[in-house]
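User: Fold this one for me? It's Branched-chain amino acid transport system ATP-binding protein.
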Amino acid sequence: MALETTTAATRSMSASALELQGVSRHFGALVALRDITIRVEHGERRAVLGANGAGKTTLFNAITGDFPPTAGSIRFFGEDVTTLPAAERIRRGLRRTYQNSQLFKGLSVLDNLFLAVRGVSRGRFSFRRPGLADPAMRSAREMMDAVRLSHLAQTPVADLAHGQQRQLEIGMALAGAPRLILFDEPAAGLSSVERRELVELLKGLPEHIAYIIIEHDLDVALRVVDYCTVMHNGEMFKEGRPEEIEADADVQRIYLGDGHG
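Assistant: Here's what I get for Branched-chain amino acid transport system ATP-binding protein.
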């Protein structure tokens, strides 16, 4: 058993954080993804860009197991997770935020974070009321500090500004020591001030956490990532560093408009 554990740990350290090989997803006759091959390294921050209908959210759904791929393989830190259910991928350190809020609006900021921590812990089915010294409660408070919401600990989520709710979603994604987080349009609906705060928050995440961000706001996406993948009609269209993608004539024409400069 010790040898197996050591071997698994060695494989995890030497492998990429995420590797997709020839991933496709069909919905009947509709081909939503076609032959996607991507490798994300440990601690890498990557943007997936593209117009509506390009296949970005379907790609996230394939990675998380919400809609497993029709063809191809997905490896997470060296382990083949292609057929694993979503819950098992979460147990291995994969997290995700959604374009539409998944928060408990009637509960406080701290309660939401506590439930996020409890949901990925061994005691998640316990009905015991947590005390101040409860490890899950301590973790919830640490995450609250990390996303700059400590001053709103007891505020009902329904009373938060939209940008604060996005901050809370990021905090919840940090529950349980994630190794890779998928952010689905975290800047959607944010004001210019809130977008700047989001950029600083994403830049300040622990360096060991890799993430992939889907984002239409390129002023946000290109400032917080190391590398970009551009999708078009369910296929990979371009890849490169942020400055290369921003300067690419095809990307400007198709996604940014001819007047981008």
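One thing worth pointing out: Residues 83 and 189 are 34 Å apart (CA to CA).
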